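Project standup — Tuesday

K.O.: blocked on the structure for the chain from last sprint. Re-posting the sequence here as requested.
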Amino acid sequence: MRFTLLLALLSLNTWAAGDNAPQLSAAIQGGRIIINPPPGHHFNLKAPAETSAYICDDAKTYCVKRTIRLDQEARVESSSATTGAAIGGRMARKFGFIYNDGPKALELARKSGKPLLIDFFAIWCPPCNQLDETVFPSAAYKKLARGFVTLKLDADAEASWALKDRYKVTGYPTVIFARPDGSEIHRIVGYLKPAAFLKAMTAAEKGEKPAAMASAETLPDPEKDSPEKIIASSRALLEKGLPEDSELQPADLWQFIAEAEKKRGDDAAAKAAYGNAAKIYKSDLARLPRGSAFNRGYNLELAYCLAESGDEAGATALYTQLEKRYPLEFTFYYNHARMLQRHGKPAEALPLARKALTHSYGDNRLRVGLLTAQLLVEAHQNNEARNVAERILASAKEPSDAQNRTHRYLKQLRELRDKLAGN
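H.V.: unblocked you, prediction finished:
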């Protein structure tokens, strides 16, 4: 029998603060109860906690009140719902997007006759953040957006599954321009500079594809091309210059070169190429408006390139700065831990992975759980590693769309769990 959970009461035992204790805000989103502390406060995850709710059957024949004690594991899951997921919602509302509600956006487009702009994003995705930081804030975008129904879908959330399946979305960001009936006009995969993005919007508003988009045939393909071809074509494009509407940027080409040099076994050339990419990201950051020191997109790319260029100290300093700026988000702890794991420092990586797991949710929780379990194995804590994998798998949902990335993450976790179980 299926059940519906209705929020009835949140009982808090406060001490010291007495009747002056601040109030919490609560909402139901995507089948979860979301509870947020007020500004300037946080939840004490180590203290005893409980909440009350009514469990009702779907036939509406009865409801039973249940009090739930929140152990550490439950509070980790609760914390994840109120941190990372909330970041995407704040960004969506800031720019006037409908957030994680595909049916609402499709119905509004149908009734209004406006085309759709659907942004499939992830909070950990550098080019997704770059769209938020350079395209959506512009006055020109806001003016054009009045002619669209705009929807942001968090690709790590179950709310994105239906439309990811419909539009066959496999990478982020993917921006879909669609007619009022939902049929696709055009899509952008990756980051586009503001002028090129606005050009695509202008065409989509008329139901057309933008003219003279850069041909994918001229761009290197890291999945198909040989390392030698990638290096040659990337260097040729760097010398010639990329088209304004290219979905690649110069720093991307240097990273392609770096990965190709790695495959050829030339680590010194790879580090030099990553260093060139880092210089470009530093230059990009310097051109952003004042107050952009904590920019997410470019800093994520910069930290990775610094680390791979051999400047681990510079990457560590940047990750630490971003962790302090975004203490309730998994992204920077996770990337920092991954860097330390790659550099053979699992003991230093594990505490960061644990923090990332505390603030993870949805698909990113599967990836962070896998990293945490791997680091526990490296620390010879196999029982705890297996427990982490089993706990996350037990709470995970599986989409019906076979192309959904969730399946890949679940498969990796199951393989690790089974290996640890001796299957």
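K.O.: great, moving the ticket to review. The beta strands are 3-9, 25-29, 32-36, 50-57, 63-69, 98-99, 116-121, 149-154, 174-178, 184-189. The longest helix spans residues 267-287.
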